[in-house]
Amino acid sequence: MPLHQQGAHIVSTDEMTGIQALERLHPTKPVKPGTQELREFEYVRHGTQTLIANFEVATGKVLKPSIGDTRTEMDFAQHIKQTVAVDPEGEWIFVCDQLNTHKSETLVRLVAEQCNIQEDLGVKGKSGILASLDTRTAFLACPSHRIRFVYTPKHASWLNQVEIWFGILVRKLLRRASFVSKESLAQRILAFIDYFNETMAKPFKWTYKGRPLAA
Q: 4-197: what CATH class?
């Protein structure tokens, strides 16, 4: 029986950094008979935001997104915490790339707390589970944990399905929009996610021809 049908949550998770809040100086002029759309090329920069998103593999929905100014190990751990809160006793499998913030001391401590693991974690850089990147990775990927991480191979983060969804976000919203502030950008992204989940969400079907990339 598939893990999802057994109640497990399998989510593809990653950050999309440097999303620019660009405000075009003049509105886009729509297509008219005999003319093309005219889009303003000058814009004002209002800063950037980082989106941390979860793509649920079995349903195609985006769960509990986080948007903020930074992508520190604390940001990522807090994102995982708010995601797990959706089903605090459930099994969670997060598919991530090999970024250091996905293997941090903060994340190890969070998983230990959430899974009620009483084992001494040691000292970062010196001993125990926290001793090195490899020991932290082994702990976070342990299949016996209710919350665990599966890491894509190095230089193959494109295997992570949320990367496909990021492409959809760019094509459907970010590429053509104008945002008057970082707050406006964040609100529009969250509104798009709600719309996507209601009207467009579906599991990606991996194919040799790469058709999901054109979704």
A: alpha beta
